[in-house]
């Protein structure tokens, strides 16, 4: 998919959201659905960022606290919180975010690579930085953030 | 016998009775002694006769006993006949009966002799003898017993019969002796009685002789003395007193009666002598009286003439008329009295004259004083007028104040009502605020719903955007729509947020409003309380104003009374002025009258300073004053009547 974006080069559609004070965004094509907060059923022997399971029209999917996963404070779920259901490597995963802030279309060249002073392992989380007028938004690499983890779990 | 010692004051009757009494006593004593001694002798003889009879019985019994024994002996001797002879048996039975039945007489005799001990075996002896003879002997005889049996029985009968015989003999002898002794005693007693009777009779005779001598002598001497005295009186000897008037008996009474005769005769003689002397004395005095009466008549004539002359002078007003020549001795007092009377009259008149002049002077003073009094009464009336005017002002002021206070009270009560109404308004306002709060809460809820809808719409728009993006080129238009919807949802959410903020603020404001309204309500309540207090104060002011009004009415009444008093004072002043005028004229008249008297020899008629001629009564100063007063009190309701009344009085005055 990342290749497709690079290749098209023209436009990139993203959805931005808040985690604490920071703003992140993901590719819209990875999103299957955005829904309001609903209580989760906790799972035993899971890492702290895996909150539990929800029932999405019959399908059971895990919910991950993105803030926790990205090494920040745990999100306090509220009515205004949202769960972004994503399709990562063919698996449905719910991401808990504080608030979905915007849906926007950016040009390909607006996406700048992350600075290289950050170590490789950490840099893999971020596909690039979107610089807007007021803020800077981190374009998350869902494949590395989630897929690796899911693969490791599977292993 | 005690009559001898009785005093000589015994009456004749008593003396005769003492004689008779001694005779009666002597004869009575003789009779009593004779009767008593006779009784004693009779008793002694009777006792002797009784004992004699018992002795006879004892002798008979002794004979019966002998017969019994003899009969037994005979029966033993004739024992061969084998039966007891019936005549002998009958004899035996009679003897036994005799012995046993007369035991009591025998015992009485034994007691008399002091030998009752001897009779102890008597009944047993009689019984054994009777048994031996009547039963044993009969049995032996009929059975033809041997000799020895008879002998034994004979011994027994003899033994008992011997004892009985001895007993009877002893008793019989003793009884004879006693009888003789008693007869001797009786004889002795009768002798003694005779001697005693003789003694009594002798004693009585001696007593009668002595008493006869004493009493007879006394009576004889008394009667002889009285007879001699009476003979002396008949003979004309009245001087010698009658003998025996000191005696207490009938002779004494006779002597006293005789003495009364004697004394009356003496008195009659004295009276005749006195009458003679008096007749002579009265004759002498009559002659001397006639001589002195002549001289007295002359002296009296002189006294009457002098007195008449002096009284004439006195009636002419000459108070110096004196009687200088002396009168007869007994009329000299009359002259002195007349001179004293005239002198006293002179002094009195002189004092009256002095007093009259002083009365005149005082009358003048009184008149000027009355004028002063009138002036002062006028001043008093003026003061009263001023007082009345001031009082009028005060009355109107107080009335004004009262009405103001009343109005204030009314206004205060209105204010109180308004305050109460305001309390209601505050309550309503508070309720309205509460309702606003409720409505605000409702609005909040609705806003929440709107916000929720905006959120959901946003989500839906995002999903739509996602779907459009996934649709690629085909979904581009849809994506624009979705974007529009998202913007709308965002605006709706913003508006909802604004409204929420506004509603919250409004809620705060409403709360503040509620607090303020509550504070206003409390303030109004306090105002209401204060208004009530103000109402009380205003009411108190109103009440005191009314009291002041009442007090002023009383002051008005008092002023009216003062006015009346002033009127009466004025009337009195007028009266006293008139009285002082008449007093002055009376004083003048008095002085004129006094001048008619010639008080000191040679003094002409003296005229005391008369008061200046009574000035004609000028119109009373009090009169004008009254009119002024009436004018001054015209305004109060009471003044008019009083004023008219006063003017009436003045006219009458």
Account of the 3D structure:
The complex is a heterodimer of chains A (155) and B (653). With 155 residues, chain A is α+β, with helices and mostly antiparallel strands. Chain A has one domain (2-38, 67-154): SH3 type barrels. Helices cover 18% and strands 46% of the residues of chain A. Chain A is built from four helices and eleven strands; from the N terminus they run H-E-E-E-E-E-H-E-E-E-E-H-E-E-H. The longest helix of chain A has 13 residues, at 142-154. Chain B has ten helices and no strands. Chain B has helices at residues 12-77, 86-101, 103-113, 122-143, 147-234, 250-315, 332-471, 476-594, 621-632, 639-652. The longest helix of chain B has 140 residues, at 332-471. Chain B folds into three domains: 3-231; 253-308; 332-595 and 607-652, Helix Hairpins. Classes of the chains: A alpha+beta (155), B mainly alpha (653). The A-B interface holds A 13, 15, 28-29, 31-36, 79-80, 82, 100, 103 and B 452, 455-456, 458-459, 462-463, 465-466, 469-470, 483, 486.
Number of folding domains of chain B? Answer: 3
CATH fold name of the largest domain in chain B: Helix Hairpins
Going by CATH, the architecture of the largest domain in chain B would be Orthogonal Bundle
Strand content range of chain B? under 5%
CATH architecture verdict of chain A: Roll
- Terminal Cα separation of chain B, in Å? 122 Å
Q: Structural class, from helix and strand content of chain B?
A: mainly alpha
Morphology call of chain A? globular
In N-to-C order, the SSE pattern of chain A is HEEEEEHEEEEHEEH
CATH class descriptor of chain A: Mainly Beta
Number of H/I helices of chain B: 10
Whole-number radius of gyration of chain B?
A: 86 Å
Largest sheet of chain A: 6 strands, mixed
Number of strands of chain A: 11
């Amino acid at each position: 998919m990342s290749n497709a974006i690079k290749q098209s080069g023209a436009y990139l559609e993203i959805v931005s959201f808040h985690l604490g004070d920071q703003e992140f965004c993901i590719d819209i094509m990875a999103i299957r659905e955005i829904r309001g907060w609903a209580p989760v059923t906790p799972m035993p022997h899971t890492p702290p960022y895996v909150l539990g399971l929800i029932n999405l029209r019959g399908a059971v999917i895990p919910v991950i606290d993105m803030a926790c996963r990205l090494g920040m404070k745990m999100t306090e779920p509220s009515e205004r919180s949202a769960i972004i259901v994503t399709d990562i490597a063919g698996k449905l995963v719910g991401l808990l975010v504080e608030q979905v802030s915007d849906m926007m279309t950016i040009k390909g060249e607006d996406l700048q690579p992350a600075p290289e002073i950050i170590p490789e392992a950490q840099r893999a989380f971020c596909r690039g930085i979107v610089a807007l007028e007021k803020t800077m938004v981190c374009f998350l690499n869902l494949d590395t953030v989630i897929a690796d983890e899911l693969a490791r779990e599977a292993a | 016998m005690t009559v001898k010692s009785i005093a000589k004051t015994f009456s004749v009757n008593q003396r005769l009775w003492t004689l008779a009494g001694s005779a009666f006593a002597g004869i009575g004593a003789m009779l009593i002694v004779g009767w008593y001694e006779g009784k004693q002798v009779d008793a002694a003889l009777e006792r002797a006769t009784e004992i004699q009879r018992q002795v006879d019985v004892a002798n008979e019994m002794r004979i019966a006993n002998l017969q019994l024994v003899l009969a037994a002996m005979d029966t033993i001797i004739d024992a061969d006949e084998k039966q007891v002879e019936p005549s002998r048996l009958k004899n035996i039975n009679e003897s036994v009966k005799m012995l046993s039945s007369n035991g009591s007489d025998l015992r009485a005799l034994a007691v008399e002799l002091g030998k009752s001990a001897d009779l102890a075996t008597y009944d047993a002896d009689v019984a054994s003898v009777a048994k031996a003879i009547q039963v044993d002997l009969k049995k032996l005889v009929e059975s033809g017993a041997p000799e020895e049996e008879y002998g034994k029985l004979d011994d027994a009968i003899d033994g008992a019969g011997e004892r009985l015989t001895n007993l009877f003999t002893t008793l019989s002898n003793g009884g004879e002796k006693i009888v003789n002794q008693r007869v001797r005693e009786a004889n002795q007693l009768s002798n003694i009685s005779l001697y005693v009777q003789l003694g009594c009779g002798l004693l009585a005779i001696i007593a009668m002789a002595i008493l006869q001598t004493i009493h007879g002598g006394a009576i004889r001497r008394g009667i002889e003395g009285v007879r001699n005295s009476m003979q002396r009186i008949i003979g004309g000897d009245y001087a010698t007193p009658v003998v025996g008037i000191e005696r207490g008996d009938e002779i004494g009474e006779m002597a006293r009666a005789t003495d009364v005769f004697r004394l009356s005769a003496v008195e009659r003689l004295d009276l005749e002598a006195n009458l003679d002397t008096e007749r002579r004395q009265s004759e002498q005095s009559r002659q001397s009286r006639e001589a002195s009466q002549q001289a007295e008549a002359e002296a009296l004539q002189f006294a009457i003439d002098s007195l008449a002359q002096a009284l004439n002078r006195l009636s002419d007003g000459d108070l110096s008329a004196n009687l200088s020549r002396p009168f007869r001795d007994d009329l000299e007092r009359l002259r002195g009295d007349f001179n004293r009377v005239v002198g006293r009259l002179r002094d009195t008149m002189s004092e009256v004259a002095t007093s009259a002049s002083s009365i005149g002077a005082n009358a003048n003073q009184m008149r000027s004083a009355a004028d002063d009094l009138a002036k002062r009464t006028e001043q008093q009336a003026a003061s009263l007028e001023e007082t009345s005017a001031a009082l009028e002002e005060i009355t109107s002021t107080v009335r004004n104040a009262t009405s103001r206070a009343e109005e204030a009270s009314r206004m205060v009560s209105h204010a109180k009502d308004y305050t109460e109404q305001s309390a209601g308004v505050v309550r309503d306002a508070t309720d309205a605020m509460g309702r606003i709060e409720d409505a605000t809460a409702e609005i909040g809820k609705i806003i929440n719903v709107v916000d929720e809808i905006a959120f959901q719409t946003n989500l839906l728009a995002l999903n739509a955007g996602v779907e459009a993006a996934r649709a690629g080129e085909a979904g581009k238009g849809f994506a624009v729509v979705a974007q529009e919807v998202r913007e709308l949802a965002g605006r709706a959410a913003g508006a909802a947020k604004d409204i929420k903020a506004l509603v919250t603020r409004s809620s705060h404001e409403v709360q503040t409003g509620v607090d303020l309204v509550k504070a206003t309500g409390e303030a109004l309540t306090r105002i209401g309380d204060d208004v009530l207090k103000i109402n009380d104060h205003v009411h108190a002011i109103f009440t005191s104003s009314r009291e002041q009004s009442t007090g002023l009415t009383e002051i008005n009444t008092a002023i009216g009374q003062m006015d009346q008093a002033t009127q009466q004072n004025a009337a009195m002043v007028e009266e006293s002025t008139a009285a002082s005028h008449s007093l002055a004229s009376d004083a003048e008249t008095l002085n004129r009258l006094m001048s008619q008297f010639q008080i000191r020899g040679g003094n002409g008629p003296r005229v005391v300073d008369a008061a200046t001629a009574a000035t004609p009564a000028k119109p009373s100063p009090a009169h004008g004053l009254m009119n002024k007063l009436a004018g001054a009190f015209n305004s109060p309701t009471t003044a008019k009547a009083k004023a008219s009344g006063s003017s009436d009085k003045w006219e009458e005055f």
